[in-house]
Amino acid sequence: MTFNKLLLSLTLTSLCTPIAFAKQSVKHISTYKAPEPIERINPKYPINAAREQREGWTKMSFVVEKDGSVSNAVVIESSGSSDFDKQSLKAVKQWQYSPAIENGQPIQQCINTVKMDFKMSRDGENGVRRRFRTIYLKAAKALEIKDYKEVEDNLEKLHKLKNMHLSESNLYHNLAAIYAKEITNEDLEIHHLNLISTNHSSISPESSYQILARKFFIQIKKNQFSRAITTYNKIKELAVAKPYLASFDDIIAKIDDIINNNDNIVVQANISDKKVWYYPLVRNEFSITNIKGELNKLDVRCANKHHVYTVEDNHTWTIPSSWEHCSLMVFGNENSSFHLIEHPIKS
Protein backbone atom coordinates (compact mmCIF):
# COMPACT_ATOMS: atom_id res chain seq x y z
CA MET A 1 0.00 0.00 0.00
CA THR A 2 1.40 3.43 -0.90
CA PHE A 3 1.63 6.33 1.57
CA ASN A 4 -1.09 8.29 -0.23
CA LYS A 5 -3.44 5.30 -0.13
CA LEU A 6 -2.63 4.88 3.55
CA LEU A 7 -3.59 8.47 4.32
CA LEU A 8 -6.69 8.21 2.14
CA SER A 9 -7.79 5.09 3.95
CA LEU A 10 -7.80 7.06 7.21
CA THR A 11 -10.70 9.11 5.91
CA LEU A 12 -12.61 6.16 4.48
CA THR A 13 -12.22 3.43 7.08
CA SER A 14 -13.42 3.41 10.67
CA LEU A 15 -11.32 1.90 13.42
CA CYS A 16 -11.55 -1.85 13.93
CA THR A 17 -14.10 -3.08 16.44
CA PRO A 18 -12.65 -4.39 19.70
CA ILE A 19 -11.59 -8.03 19.69
CA ALA A 20 -13.55 -10.35 21.97
CA PHE A 21 -11.42 -12.95 23.72
CA ALA A 22 -12.85 -16.34 24.60
CA LYS A 23 -12.32 -17.59 28.11
CA GLN A 24 -9.65 -20.23 28.33
CA SER A 25 -7.27 -21.74 30.82
CA VAL A 26 -3.98 -19.89 31.19
CA LYS A 27 -0.70 -21.78 31.23
CA HIS A 28 2.58 -20.46 32.54
CA ILE A 29 5.15 -20.42 29.71
CA SER A 30 8.32 -19.05 31.25
CA THR A 31 9.77 -16.64 33.80
CA TYR A 32 12.15 -14.02 32.45
CA LYS A 33 14.42 -11.53 34.23
CA ALA A 34 16.15 -8.82 32.21
CA PRO A 35 19.90 -8.20 32.58
CA GLU A 36 20.84 -5.50 35.08
CA PRO A 37 23.97 -3.32 34.90
CA ILE A 38 26.67 -3.97 37.49
CA GLU A 39 29.38 -1.73 36.05
CA ARG A 40 29.11 0.70 33.14
CA ILE A 41 32.29 2.62 32.43
CA ASN A 42 31.92 6.03 30.81
CA PRO A 43 33.88 6.60 27.60
CA LYS A 44 36.94 8.85 27.76
CA TYR A 45 36.63 12.18 26.02
CA PRO A 46 39.15 12.06 23.12
CA ILE A 47 42.04 14.46 23.77
CA ASN A 48 41.90 16.11 20.35
CA ALA A 49 38.13 16.48 20.57
CA ALA A 50 38.45 18.16 23.97
CA ARG A 51 41.13 20.53 22.67
CA GLU A 52 38.92 21.44 19.73
CA GLN A 53 35.84 21.63 22.00
CA ARG A 54 34.21 19.20 19.59
CA GLU A 55 31.00 17.40 20.58
CA GLY A 56 29.08 14.42 19.20
CA TRP A 57 27.29 11.15 19.93
CA THR A 58 27.46 7.45 19.13
CA LYS A 59 24.66 4.85 19.09
CA MET A 60 25.60 1.18 19.43
CA SER A 61 24.05 -2.28 19.45
CA PHE A 62 25.53 -4.99 21.66
CA VAL A 63 24.94 -8.44 23.13
CA VAL A 64 24.92 -9.29 26.85
CA GLU A 65 26.37 -12.79 27.21
CA LYS A 66 25.38 -15.52 29.67
CA ASP A 67 28.21 -14.45 32.01
CA GLY A 68 27.08 -10.80 31.92
CA SER A 69 29.91 -9.60 29.68
CA VAL A 70 29.32 -7.51 26.56
CA SER A 71 30.15 -8.77 23.06
CA ASN A 72 29.48 -7.93 19.42
CA ALA A 73 29.30 -4.17 19.97
CA VAL A 74 28.63 -2.34 16.69
CA VAL A 75 28.22 1.36 15.91
CA ILE A 76 24.89 1.67 14.08
CA GLU A 77 24.66 5.47 13.92
CA SER A 78 26.72 8.45 15.06
CA SER A 79 27.41 12.14 14.62
CA GLY A 80 30.33 11.18 12.41
CA SER A 81 33.46 11.46 14.58
CA SER A 82 35.50 8.25 14.50
CA ASP A 83 37.29 9.08 17.77
CA PHE A 84 33.95 9.26 19.63
CA ASP A 85 32.92 5.96 18.04
CA LYS A 86 36.21 4.35 19.08
CA GLN A 87 35.97 5.48 22.70
CA SER A 88 32.32 4.45 22.92
CA LEU A 89 33.10 0.93 21.69
CA LYS A 90 36.07 0.67 24.05
CA ALA A 91 33.90 1.65 27.02
CA VAL A 92 30.87 -0.55 26.28
CA LYS A 93 33.06 -3.63 25.82
CA GLN A 94 34.10 -3.26 29.47
CA TRP A 95 30.55 -3.12 30.81
CA GLN A 96 29.35 -5.90 33.08
CA TYR A 97 25.78 -7.06 33.76
CA SER A 98 24.01 -9.63 35.82
CA PRO A 99 22.82 -11.82 32.93
CA ALA A 100 19.29 -12.25 31.68
CA ILE A 101 17.59 -15.20 33.39
CA GLU A 102 14.92 -17.46 31.91
CA ASN A 103 13.46 -20.25 34.04
CA GLY A 104 16.41 -19.99 36.40
CA GLN A 105 19.08 -20.26 33.69
CA PRO A 106 21.30 -17.45 32.30
CA ILE A 107 20.68 -16.63 28.63
CA GLN A 108 21.99 -14.17 26.05
CA GLN A 109 20.24 -10.82 25.72
CA CYS A 110 20.88 -9.86 22.11
CA ILE A 111 18.80 -6.71 21.56
CA ASN A 112 20.51 -3.87 23.43
CA THR A 113 21.18 -0.35 22.21
CA VAL A 114 22.79 2.63 23.90
CA LYS A 115 23.50 6.20 22.82
CA MET A 116 26.55 7.93 24.29
CA ASP A 117 26.70 11.74 24.19
CA PHE A 118 29.93 13.71 24.26
CA LYS A 119 29.14 17.21 25.50
CA MET A 120 31.27 20.02 26.90
CA SER A 121 30.16 22.61 29.43
CA ARG A 122 30.33 26.09 28.01
CA ASP A 123 28.82 29.54 28.40
CA GLY A 124 27.46 31.71 25.63
CA GLU A 125 25.33 30.97 22.60
CA ASN A 126 25.08 27.22 22.87
CA GLY A 127 28.59 26.89 21.44
CA VAL A 128 27.80 28.54 18.08
CA ARG A 129 30.98 30.30 16.97
CA ARG A 130 31.31 33.38 14.78
CA ARG A 131 32.77 31.54 11.76
CA PHE A 132 30.00 28.95 11.83
CA ARG A 133 27.31 31.61 12.26
CA THR A 134 28.63 33.63 9.30
CA ILE A 135 28.61 30.65 6.91
CA TYR A 136 25.28 29.39 8.24
CA LEU A 137 23.54 32.72 7.67
CA LYS A 138 24.88 32.86 4.11
CA ALA A 139 23.49 29.39 3.43
CA ALA A 140 20.13 30.26 5.01
CA LYS A 141 19.88 33.48 2.97
CA ALA A 142 20.76 31.62 -0.23
CA LEU A 143 18.06 29.05 0.52
CA GLU A 144 15.52 31.82 1.04
CA ILE A 145 16.19 33.21 -2.46
CA LYS A 146 16.55 29.71 -3.96
CA ASP A 147 20.20 30.13 -4.94
CA TYR A 148 20.87 26.40 -4.64
CA LYS A 149 24.48 26.57 -5.82
CA GLU A 150 25.28 29.03 -3.05
CA VAL A 151 23.40 26.83 -0.55
CA GLU A 152 25.43 23.77 -1.51
CA ASP A 153 28.73 25.68 -1.39
CA ASN A 154 28.07 26.97 2.10
CA LEU A 155 26.71 23.66 3.40
CA GLU A 156 29.93 22.06 2.16
CA LYS A 157 31.94 24.70 4.06
CA LEU A 158 29.95 23.94 7.22
CA HIS A 159 30.46 20.20 6.73
CA LYS A 160 34.23 20.74 6.60
CA LEU A 161 34.20 22.40 10.04
CA LYS A 162 35.18 19.14 11.73
CA ASN A 163 35.21 20.52 15.27
CA MET A 164 31.48 21.26 15.38
CA HIS A 165 29.67 21.53 18.69
CA LEU A 166 26.37 19.66 19.01
CA SER A 167 24.41 22.88 18.70
CA GLU A 168 26.28 23.70 15.48
CA SER A 169 25.85 20.16 14.21
CA ASN A 170 22.10 20.35 14.85
CA LEU A 171 21.81 23.66 13.02
CA TYR A 172 23.81 22.31 10.08
CA HIS A 173 21.80 19.10 9.72
CA ASN A 174 18.49 20.92 10.15
CA LEU A 175 19.36 23.42 7.40
CA ALA A 176 20.64 20.61 5.17
CA ALA A 177 17.37 18.72 5.74
CA ILE A 178 15.32 21.80 4.83
CA TYR A 179 17.36 22.17 1.64
CA ALA A 180 16.92 18.47 0.82
CA LYS A 181 13.16 18.87 1.26
CA GLU A 182 13.24 21.92 -1.01
CA ILE A 183 14.87 19.91 -3.81
CA THR A 184 12.62 16.88 -3.04
CA ASN A 185 15.46 14.53 -2.12
CA GLU A 186 13.89 12.49 0.70
CA ASP A 187 16.85 10.12 1.07
CA LEU A 188 19.13 13.08 1.76
CA GLU A 189 16.52 14.74 3.94
CA ILE A 190 16.01 11.80 6.27
CA HIS A 191 19.78 11.24 6.43
CA HIS A 192 20.19 14.71 7.95
CA LEU A 193 17.09 14.43 10.13
CA ASN A 194 18.50 11.22 11.64
CA LEU A 195 21.68 13.08 12.63
CA ILE A 196 19.90 15.79 14.63
CA SER A 197 20.12 15.20 18.38
CA THR A 198 16.58 16.18 19.38
CA ASN A 199 17.30 15.88 23.10
CA HIS A 200 19.94 18.63 22.99
CA SER A 201 19.29 22.01 24.64
CA SER A 202 19.67 23.78 21.28
CA ILE A 203 16.49 22.09 20.01
CA SER A 204 13.16 23.38 21.36
CA PRO A 205 10.28 20.96 22.06
CA GLU A 206 8.40 22.47 19.12
CA SER A 207 11.36 21.91 16.79
CA SER A 208 11.79 18.37 18.11
CA TYR A 209 8.16 17.66 17.26
CA GLN A 210 8.51 19.07 13.75
CA ILE A 211 11.68 17.05 13.09
CA LEU A 212 10.21 13.81 14.43
CA ALA A 213 6.90 14.30 12.60
CA ARG A 214 8.73 14.86 9.31
CA LYS A 215 10.83 11.72 9.92
CA PHE A 216 7.67 9.75 10.71
CA PHE A 217 5.97 10.58 7.40
CA ILE A 218 9.08 9.94 5.29
CA GLN A 219 9.61 6.61 7.04
CA ILE A 220 6.04 5.59 6.19
CA LYS A 221 6.49 6.60 2.54
CA LYS A 222 9.58 4.40 2.41
CA ASN A 223 7.80 1.44 4.08
CA GLN A 224 10.14 1.73 7.08
CA PHE A 225 7.34 0.83 9.45
CA SER A 226 9.45 -0.31 12.40
CA ARG A 227 11.38 2.95 12.33
CA ALA A 228 8.14 4.91 12.03
CA ILE A 229 6.79 3.17 15.15
CA THR A 230 9.99 4.05 17.05
CA THR A 231 9.66 7.68 15.94
CA TYR A 232 5.99 7.69 16.96
CA ASN A 233 6.95 6.54 20.47
CA LYS A 234 9.36 9.49 20.72
CA ILE A 235 6.64 11.86 19.53
CA LYS A 236 4.31 10.59 22.29
CA GLU A 237 6.85 11.70 24.90
CA LEU A 238 6.55 15.35 23.82
CA ALA A 239 3.93 17.43 25.60
CA VAL A 240 3.64 19.73 22.56
CA ALA A 241 2.54 16.74 20.45
CA LYS A 242 -0.52 15.97 22.57
CA PRO A 243 -3.05 17.83 20.33
CA TYR A 244 -1.91 15.79 17.31
CA LEU A 245 -1.63 12.30 18.79
CA ALA A 246 -5.07 11.14 17.66
CA SER A 247 -4.02 11.55 14.01
CA PHE A 248 -0.79 9.63 14.66
CA ASP A 249 -2.73 6.89 16.45
CA ASP A 250 -4.94 6.44 13.38
CA ILE A 251 -1.89 6.07 11.15
CA ILE A 252 -0.27 3.58 13.52
CA ALA A 253 -3.45 1.49 13.40
CA LYS A 254 -3.19 1.41 9.61
CA ILE A 255 0.48 0.45 9.82
CA ASP A 256 -0.54 -2.53 11.97
CA ASP A 257 -3.03 -3.53 9.26
CA ILE A 258 -0.33 -3.37 6.59
CA ILE A 259 2.10 -5.43 8.68
CA ASN A 260 -0.53 -8.13 9.06
CA ASN A 261 -1.81 -8.22 5.47
CA ASN A 262 -0.70 -10.54 2.65
CA ASP A 263 1.51 -8.12 0.71
CA ASN A 264 5.28 -7.99 0.71
CA ILE A 265 6.87 -5.01 2.46
CA VAL A 266 9.81 -3.70 0.39
CA VAL A 267 12.41 -1.40 1.96
CA GLN A 268 15.24 0.25 0.02
CA ALA A 269 18.49 -0.07 1.99
CA ASN A 270 21.79 1.77 1.60
CA ILE A 271 25.03 1.03 3.46
CA SER A 272 26.37 4.12 5.25
CA ASP A 273 29.95 5.13 5.94
CA LYS A 274 29.67 2.98 9.09
CA LYS A 275 29.54 0.04 6.65
CA VAL A 276 26.44 -1.35 8.35
CA TRP A 277 22.68 -1.01 7.82
CA TYR A 278 20.53 -1.52 10.93
CA TYR A 279 16.82 -2.26 10.81
CA PRO A 280 14.29 -3.69 13.33
CA LEU A 281 12.14 -6.29 11.57
CA VAL A 282 8.33 -6.36 11.70
CA ARG A 283 8.00 -9.87 10.22
CA ASN A 284 9.76 -13.21 10.65
CA GLU A 285 10.53 -14.02 7.01
CA PHE A 286 12.59 -11.83 4.73
CA SER A 287 14.73 -11.81 1.61
CA ILE A 288 17.54 -9.61 0.34
CA THR A 289 17.38 -8.83 -3.37
CA ASN A 290 18.74 -6.48 -6.01
CA ILE A 291 22.19 -6.22 -4.40
CA LYS A 292 24.37 -3.49 -5.87
CA GLY A 293 27.90 -3.35 -4.47
CA GLU A 294 29.28 -5.81 -1.93
CA LEU A 295 27.57 -7.19 1.16
CA ASN A 296 29.78 -9.13 3.58
CA LYS A 297 27.51 -10.63 6.24
CA LEU A 298 24.09 -10.51 7.81
CA ASP A 299 23.64 -10.35 11.58
CA VAL A 300 20.23 -11.26 13.06
CA ARG A 301 19.75 -10.20 16.68
CA CYS A 302 16.60 -11.20 18.54
CA ALA A 303 15.65 -11.03 22.22
CA ASN A 304 17.83 -14.01 23.16
CA LYS A 305 19.15 -15.26 19.82
CA HIS A 306 22.10 -14.06 17.77
CA HIS A 307 23.08 -15.55 14.41
CA VAL A 308 25.42 -14.42 11.63
CA TYR A 309 25.02 -15.47 7.99
CA THR A 310 26.65 -14.93 4.64
CA VAL A 311 24.58 -12.96 2.16
CA GLU A 312 23.18 -14.22 -1.13
CA ASP A 313 20.98 -12.35 -3.56
CA ASN A 314 17.34 -13.57 -3.55
CA HIS A 315 17.88 -15.84 -0.54
CA THR A 316 15.05 -16.07 2.01
CA TRP A 317 15.55 -16.33 5.76
CA THR A 318 12.78 -17.62 8.04
CA ILE A 319 13.04 -16.77 11.73
CA PRO A 320 11.16 -18.98 14.23
CA SER A 321 8.21 -17.14 15.75
CA SER A 322 9.68 -17.81 19.19
CA TRP A 323 12.56 -15.46 18.35
CA GLU A 324 11.06 -12.19 19.46
CA HIS A 325 11.96 -8.54 18.74
CA CYS A 326 14.42 -9.25 15.94
CA SER A 327 16.69 -6.69 14.31
CA LEU A 328 18.83 -7.01 11.23
CA MET A 329 22.33 -5.68 10.61
CA VAL A 330 23.77 -5.97 7.11
CA PHE A 331 27.48 -5.29 6.73
CA GLY A 332 29.02 -4.24 3.43
CA ASN A 333 30.98 -1.66 1.52
CA GLU A 334 29.94 1.97 1.79
CA ASN A 335 27.24 3.00 -0.73
CA SER A 336 26.24 -0.60 -1.44
CA SER A 337 22.47 -0.96 -1.76
CA PHE A 338 19.80 -3.67 -1.77
CA HIS A 339 16.11 -4.33 -1.18
CA LEU A 340 14.88 -5.88 2.06
CA ILE A 341 11.64 -7.74 1.39
CA GLU A 342 9.61 -8.76 4.44
CA HIS A 343 7.20 -11.53 3.45
CA PRO A 344 3.63 -11.91 4.80
CA ILE A 345 3.22 -13.41 8.24
CA LYS A 346 2.25 -17.05 7.94
CA SER A 347 -0.73 -18.17 9.97
From TrEMBL:
UniProt subcellular location: Cell inner membrane
Q: Does the keyword Ion transport apply?
A: no
The UniProt record lists the keyword Amino-acid biosynthesis: no
Residues covered by the TonB C-terminal domain: 30-127
**Pfam families in alphabetical order:** TonB_C
Give the coiled coil ranges.
none
Instruction: Give the signal peptide range.
Output: 1-22
InterPro entries for this protein? TonB-dependent_transducer (IPR051045), TonB/TolA_C (IPR006260), TonB_C (IPR037682)
- Membrane topology listed for this record: Single-pass membrane protein
Q: What is its main location?
A: membrane
The alphabetical list of record keywords is: Cell inner membrane, Cell membrane, Membrane, Protein transport, Signal, Transmembrane, Transmembrane helix, Transport
The family assignment reads:
Belongs to the TonB family.
Q: Which NCBIfam families match?
A: tonB_Cterm
Its name, as the record gives it, is TonB C-terminal domain-containing protein
Q: Which organism is it from?
A: Thalassotalea profundi
